[in-house]
């Protein structure tokens, strides 16, 4: 029987627009929803409209002073600090309301699971994983990922796994729970020597009681589908099987794609589809089927993000799409009003995402990253880092 899946959505999510020419353009969400509807993924699905996160919910993660700064920033004549007013995080009118609504969407998705209405819940507008306790960063004002996790902890959950597959390190979520053994944060990202924010080394393990619960897999630039999936399967399943989370939270940024303009990994939409299948399987086998799905980065706005996230929506709803499915003509016409770039004709890049599982060797470029993370983390969980059976 298919899992029960709730989808949180409102067109008001599109008001989170940092500026007219900012890379994080909400058109990617608009086109993703159009494509999901056009391919029948959302047929019969009742979309759940969220409310803005409350001050109490935001304060689980963010300081009151930071929240005050965000509310006042659009009217402040001399700036308010806290990382606001930069090129990455420009100030815009309605900033608090737009960011709090996205955070509220992730809390609502978490609530759907916690209150038993769903096994899986999706907020594709979420995934703003860089915001810190009192500072905006990396296009992120409020950290909806951390707010949703903190809300689940308030409800009595004792083991939550956060798995971040965005090309950038999930630094804000790691920082929020760095000393908390109830939350295992796992981030797969481009190596910090080669990409902002410059964190996410294998030796970042957590602090105090949280030591061993921060996991980082730093991938070399140029890693493609086969290498990414090899690294994922060489590290992540063993740790989650040991941790046995009650909920798996995933941040699913699509900026690992070869066409993304802000990073240097080389995945395809076909590799993303294989990734999402792996996430769904891990939720089923390690977290009792409880899966909270969030969006994230992704700056190839027209050719990549809508297709990748439509596959993700389909996987979360157990309505998997044929990679060769044709893009509807109505969608192409709408997308063409936004860009003159050539648009895709199918849900595939024509790539083969097959890979060879890690077997304890150094046969592939990513194997040093696999072993570095395994040797840093696995002994802390009673696992043998050099035994591929662990």
From TrEMBL:
Keywords in alphabetical order, please: Acetoin catabolism
Swiss-Prot/TrEMBL GO biological process terms? acetoin catabolic process; epigenetic regulation of gene expression
UniProt pathway annotation: Ketone degradation; acetoin degradation
* SUPFAM superfamilies assigned: Arginase/deacetylase (SSF52768)
Provide the Histone deacetylase domain boundaries.
22-314
**Which is an annotated Pfam family here?**
Hist_deacetyl
Superkingdom assignment: Bacteria
Matching InterPro entries, A to Z?
AcuC (IPR003085), HDACs (IPR000286), His_deacetylse_dom (IPR023801), His_deacetylse_dom_sf (IPR037138), Ureohydrolase_dom_sf (IPR023696)
Q: Does the keyword Iron apply?
A: no
As one GO molecular function, the record gives: histone deacetylase activity
* Homology family: Belongs to the histone deacetylase family.
Q: What is this protein called?
A: Acetoin utilization protein AcuC
* Gene this chain is encoded by: acuC
């Amino acid at each position: 029987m298919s899992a029960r899946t709730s989808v949180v959505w409102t067109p008001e999510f599109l008001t989170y627009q940092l500026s007219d020419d900012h890379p994080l353009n909400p058109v990617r969400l608009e086109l993703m929803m159009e494509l999901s509807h056009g391919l029948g993924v959302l047929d019969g699905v009742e979309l759940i409209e969220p409310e803005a996160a409350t001050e109490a919910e935001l304060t689980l993660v963010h300081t009151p002073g930071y929240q005050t700064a965000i509310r006042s920033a659009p009217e402040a004549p001399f700036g308010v600090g806290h990382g606001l007013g930069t090129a990455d995080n420009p100030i815009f009118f309605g900033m608090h309301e737009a960011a709090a609504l996205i955070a509220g969407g992730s809390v609502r998705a978490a609530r759907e699971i916690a209150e038993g209405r769903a096994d899986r819940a999706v907020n594709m507008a979420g995934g703003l994983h860089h915001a810190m306790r009192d500072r905006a960063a990396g296009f992120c004002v409020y950290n909806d990922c951390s707010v949703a996790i903190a809300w689940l902890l308030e409800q009595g959950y004792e083991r939550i796994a956060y798995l971040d597959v965005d090309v950038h390190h999930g630094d804000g979520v790691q920082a929020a729970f760095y000393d908390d053994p109830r939350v295992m944060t796992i981030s797969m990202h481009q190596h910090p020597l080669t990409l902002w924010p410059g964190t996410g080394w294998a030796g970042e393990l957590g602090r105090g009681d949280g030591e061993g619960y921060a996991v980082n897999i730093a991938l070399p630039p140029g890693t493609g589908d086969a290498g990414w999936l090899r690294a994922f399967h060489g590290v992540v399943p063993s740790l989650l099987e040991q941790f046995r989370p009650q909920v798996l939270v995933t941040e699913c940024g699509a900026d690992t794609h070869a066409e993304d303009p802000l990073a240097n990994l080389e995945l395809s939409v076909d590799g993303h589809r294989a990734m999402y299948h792996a996430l769904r399987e891990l939720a089923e086998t390690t977290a009792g089927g409880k899966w909270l799905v969030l969006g994230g980065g992704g700056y190839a706005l027209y050719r990549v993000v809508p297709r990748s996230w439509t596959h993700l929506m389909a996987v979360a709803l157990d309505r998997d799409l044929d990679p060769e499915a044709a893009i509807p003509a109505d969608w192409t016409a709408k997308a063409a009003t936004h860009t003159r770039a050539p648009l895709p004709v199918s849900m595939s890049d024509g790539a083969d995402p097959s890979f060879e599982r890690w077997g304890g060797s150094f046969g592939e470029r990513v194997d040093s990253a696999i072993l570095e993370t395994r040797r840093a983390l696995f002994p802390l969980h009673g696992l043998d880092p050099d035994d591929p059976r662990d």
